[in-house]
Amino acid sequence: MSPAMTTNLRNIAAVARREFVWRGRTRTFRLTTALLVVVGVAVALAPVIIRFIDRGSAGDRVEVAVGNAVPGIDVPVALGLLLNAPTPGLPESGDSTPDFRVEATSDVEAARQRVVDGSTAALLVLDRTAAGDLEFTLYSKDPVVTRSSQLIRQAAGSIAIQDRLSRAGIPPLDQAALFAPPAFLLELADPDAANGGPQSGEDFVSSYAISFALSILLFMAIILYGQWVAFSVAEEKNSRVMEVVLAAATPFQLLSGKVVGVGGLALVQYLIVLVPSAAAVLLQDRIAALIFGGSGSVGLPEGLSLPLLGVFGVMFVLGFAFYAVLYAGAASLVSRQEDVNQIIAPLTIVSVGGYLVASYAGTGLIPIDSPLVVVLSFIPFFSPYLMLTRMGLGTAAPTEVVAAIALLVAFIPVALWVAARLYRSGVLLYGQPPTSRTLLRALRGR
Questions:
Q1: What angle do CA 289, 216, 331 make, to 5 degrees?
Q2: Quick check: 44 and 287 in contact, CB under 8 A?
Q3: What is the C-alpha to C-alpha distance for residues 159 and 166, in angstroms, rounded to an integer?
Q4: Confidence (pTM)
Q5: In the chain, where are the structural domains located?
Q6: pLDDT tens, 358-387?
Q7: How far is it, in rounded angstroms, from Cα 338 to Cα 24?
């Protein structure tokens, strides 16, 4: 190794060590890390938390006033069975306590007062229309969009249909046969197409949720830690510390050291957050079984695979390196920290654009296999988000993933060259507003 290269590496390491140690000791870093750990674990256990909150409202009483409607079925029994039926596609909780207790009442006014007092969750009053159909009136303090109101409304529709069938003389066994779901198959239009995508709605939701969550993590990392680098550059330039540092290190060494130091600290913080969050995801079934009873297993959630995690790690490192050097170069053009957001706004907008396209493609608002999404998934500014989403949904071949990573690796030196030019000229610019003329002059090295 040549003496010049040794000097470069030594100075880069010194700057990186200073950035890592100094920022890692700040109270802001410690507080944000602790907060992110709590948020990460809470998000990982969100299904269990939501289930526990719903469980806290178990035993909600719903009163039914049949009055003179005289339905052809036992409405309180039918309503209780419908409200407490397991949700299709969701696992059984193992809790024998019903979510709703349905009771008959004949005093509507007293029941309405119990709803007002909170001792009863809702009151369902039946009547007949002029055409003879059942008519339902629900008295509740909850908004229309709540889960309980929607469940009662759906159950009322089923009860009305059963009543019509009973009035038509159709026995209960024949009614069950009428509502049996039909056989329904989904086949690809192209018989030669590879069937590698999600095979069911549940598979699609699982795959989307995983790829969407990973895209969010990547987007937050690039925006948050990229701005760390930008504000670090502006802070030192504003305090004139950079003029002293430049006497011992070149602008390239200073730029590289800042990116490596802040990037290393970002990676450490991410690991501190991801380790307990990943443990919470893996142990989610065990934790649910401990709280709600039953048995649980340990394993990767459906839709999450080791290759996807590996690609996420690679995209995390390369995506951050690509954006961080550009953030540092752009921030060197301003003399005040107040101007940092203005100069890095174009990079932030580009990053947000890639994230939004990935989100829309993952949710189906934009076809995941459209030419726009496919082309953008190879452009380094967007590939960390889009290729991760395409891979999560099974629409990206391994060769495409490798090609996107190779292009990102190839463009990082280009971004580093641009950032170094900006940095070399920008660190000496004080008191000048960040205009397009300033940018062009910095790129020309003047």
A1: 145
A2: no
A3: 10
A4: 0.63
A5: 7-48+200-444, 57-178
A6: 888 877 788 888 898 999 999 999 999 888
A7: 23
